[in-house]
User: Fold these one by one.
Assistant:
Number 1:
Amino acid sequence: QGVDVTYLLLTTGEAGIQDKSPEETGPLRAQEQKRACAKVGVDDLRILDFSDGVLEYSIELRKKIAEVIRDVKPTVLVLTEWGLEVPWGLNHADHRVAGLAAVDAVRDAGNKWLFTDLTDENGVQL
C-alpha cells in the first residue's frame, strides 16, 4: 500500500527449532524472515544479535532498539505483547522482554539526553 516498513528482530531465532542445532536454525530463520518480508513488500529487515530464548531486559537492548527508531524515524510502531498472559496462554519470556524494552526504547529514542553517542558520520544525533 505504499508504506515503508522496517522489521526489527532482536534475536536470530537460533533456539527456535528443537530438532535442529542453533547453527542450522539461525540462518534458516533469517532466510524465512527475508522470504516473508519479500512477500509482503518489506525491504528493510534488521536482525540484531541478541541470544534467542534468553533475551534479557537491559540498557544495551533498549539502546539498540532506540538506535533503530532514531535511524528510521517511524510514524507508527507495532510492538509485541509484553504481558504475562496472552489470549493463547502464557507469553514467551523473550516476547515479554522484547515488548517492554521496545516500549521503553520508544521513549528513550525521543530523549536527546539519552544515548548521546548514537550519532551519524557527520556527528548528528540520530
Note: Helices lie at 22-40, 59-72, 93-109.
Number 2:
Amino acid sequence: MDWVVLFCAGLFGGVLNSVAGGGSFITFPALLWFGLPPITANATNTFAACAGYISGAWGFRRDITSQPSKVISIAIFSLLGGALGAWLLLNVSESLFVEAIPWLLLFATLLFLLGEKVRAIANIIASSSVSSKSVATVALTLCLVLVSAYGGFFNAGLGVIVLSYLVIAGFSDIHQMNGLKLLISTCVSLSAIALFLWQGAINWQAGSVVLLGTITGGYLAATVSRSLSQRTVKRFVALSSLCMTCYFFVDVYAV
C-alpha cells in the first residue's frame, strides 16, 4: 500500500508539474509520510523530479539552443548553484531543516500564488536602465547562483523563481524561457543528486517509485490538460500548498 501511495503521489505530482507546476507540494509530503527523514525525503524528491526536468528540457531543445553562448554559461552557474544548495542541505542539522520546512513551504506557496506579480516586478527591474553593464552581468550571475542554490536546498517553488530570474535577465520568448527553466532545473537537480549520491542521502526504492509515477503523470498530462482549465488546476495547487504549509507549521511549532 505504501508503494501505491508513493506512485499515486508521483503520478499526481507529474500531472501538476506539466500543467501548472507545484508537484513537489504533493511528492515531498508523501515521502515524509512514507517515513523518510526530512533531509532524505528532500534529496529523494529532487531525484524523483529530475527525469521530468530532463524530458521537458529535451522537448524544448530547439528553443534552448537558439543562443548557445548564453546556454553554456547558464548551465555552468546552475550546476554550481545546485551543488552549493545541496552542500548546505547536507550540512545543516536535521532539527534545523525540520524547523525550516514550514517557512520554505510558505515561501514557495507565496511565490506560486504571487508568481505573475513577481514576474511583473521583475519585468520592471529588467526594463530599468543600468549604469554599468559589467555590474549588471555580475549581479545577474550571482542571482542565478542564488536561485540555483535554493533549488539544490529545497526544490519546491524553483520554477517560479527561475522564470522571474529569466525576466530580469532580459528573456522574453516564453518558449525559450520555459526551455531554459527546465534546463536550469535539470542542472540544479543533477549537481544536487551527485552530492546526495556521494553522501548516500537518497532512498532509491522510494525515489524510483515516485519517479515512475512522475513520468507516467507527465505523459498523461496532455489528456488531463484538455479536460481541466489551468485556473482550476492552479487553484487546487494553491489550496493543497496552503494546507500543507499550515499542517507543517502546526506539526513543527505547536506546543
Note: The chain is about 85% helix and 0% strand.
Number 3:
Amino acid sequence: MDRFDALLAFARVVEAGSFTKAAQTLHLSKTTVTQLVQQLEARLRVKLLHRTTRQVRVTPDGAAYYERVVRVLADLDDADTALSSATTSPRGRLRVDVPTPFARLVLMPALPEFHARHPEIQLDMGVSDRIVDVIG
C-alpha cells in the first residue's frame, strides 16, 4: 500500500461522502479507493469510516485522523509548489548585442519591467552599429 495514495483516498472519501465520488475525483476505480481505505484501516487497526449501502460517515477516530491528514496533504502541496516555483524562475547571464536604434527605441524602455519580472537574470547588453560575429 502506498501511504500517500491511501491518505489521499481517505481524505477524498471524507470530503465527498462517497467512495464513488472520491474515485471519480481521483480518476481511480471505486474498488481501488475502497481497497486503499481498507488497507489504511488495517494498518492503523482503527475503523475510520462507517459504511452502509446508502452512506459513508466518519467515525470519531476517523474525524481526528482526517484533520491531521488534511494538514499533511496541504504541507506536501506547499512543498511541491515552493520547489516548482523556485526552479521555474529564470536566472543566469544573458548577453545581447543590438544596433543602437533598436536599443534606444525598444530595449531600453523595456528594461525596467524586464528586470522587475526577472530579477535573477544578469543582462549584458552590447550596443553599437558595427557588425557582430555572434559565433565568435
Note: The domain at 90-127 is CATH 3.40.190.10 (D-Maltodextrin-Binding Protein; domain 2).
Number 4:
Amino acid sequence: MAISAALVKELRDRTGLGMMECKRALAATDGNIEVAIEELRKSGQAKAAKKAGRTAAEGVVAAKIVNGGKAALMVEVNSETDFVARDAGFLAFTDSVLDKAEAENLTDIAKLKEELETSRQALVQKIGENIDVRRIVKLEGDVTGAYIHGNKRIAVLVSLEGGNEELAKDIAMHVAAVNPQVVNKEDMPAELVEKEKEIFTAQAQQSGKPAEIIEKMIVGRINKFLAENSLVEQPFVKNPDVKIGKLAADAGAKVLNFVRYEVGEGIEKEEVDFAAEVAAAAAGN
C-alpha cells in the first residue's frame, strides 16, 4: 500500500527515527503504525532513537598516524557521562571510528556516521546512553605528529614540512598545553585583530595620555596579542628559551598546520535538576 507523508511524520514524531527508517517500517507492516512501533522497539531502533535526543557532551578524542607518517586522523566521539567515556566498549567503538576513516579514506562526518550507524545503535542499546560521532579531521604533510593528553579529553595533530615525528609530537604537546589560535601571526583573522584593537583602544584612551602615546600603546598591545596567540611565536613549553618557530627551523622544519580538539568544546550542556528528575519519574509510576 502507499505510505502517506503524514503517516511517516507521525511515526517519526513518536519514535525520533529518520524518515527512511520510518518509511521502511511502515511498508513492512502495511501502514499499521502501532505494529511498526512494536517492531521497531523489538529491534531496538526506537529505544536508541529516543536516547539520540539527549545531550552527549562527554567522551574522548582519539588520533592515529596513517599513510606512513605523512597523514594523521583525529576524531571526537561523545557520550552523556564521563563514566561511559571510560567504558571498554565505548573506547573500542572509538577505535573502530578511526579504523573505518582510515580504511575508506573518510573525512566527511555525515558519511562516516552513516557507515557506523548500525554499530553505534548497538552500543547505545548496550550502555543506555546517547553516543555521537561528532567530528573528524585529517592533516597531511612531509611529517605528521599527534599528541593525546592522558585523560583523552584533549588531542592535537600537527603537520610539518621537513622535520621528524618526534618534533611534530613535541609541538603537538605544546599546542595541547598552550592552545594557540593560529600558526603564524599573519594567519590571525582580520576581524579578530580589529576586535582586539577596539578593546585596547578603549582601555588606552582611559589613561588620559596624548594621542601619539596611545597609538604606540595600541600597536604594542596588538603585537603582544599576536605573539601570545601565534604558535611559532610562543616559547616552547619544554624549553621556554626557544620559540616554536626556531625549534622547528633548527630541525630543518616548518610548521604547516595544527588542529586541537577538546572534548565537548562548543556543546551547550543541559543543566539537570536531579531532584526534579526523580520526582517526575516517581510521578510517572
Note: The chain has a mean pLDDT of 87.
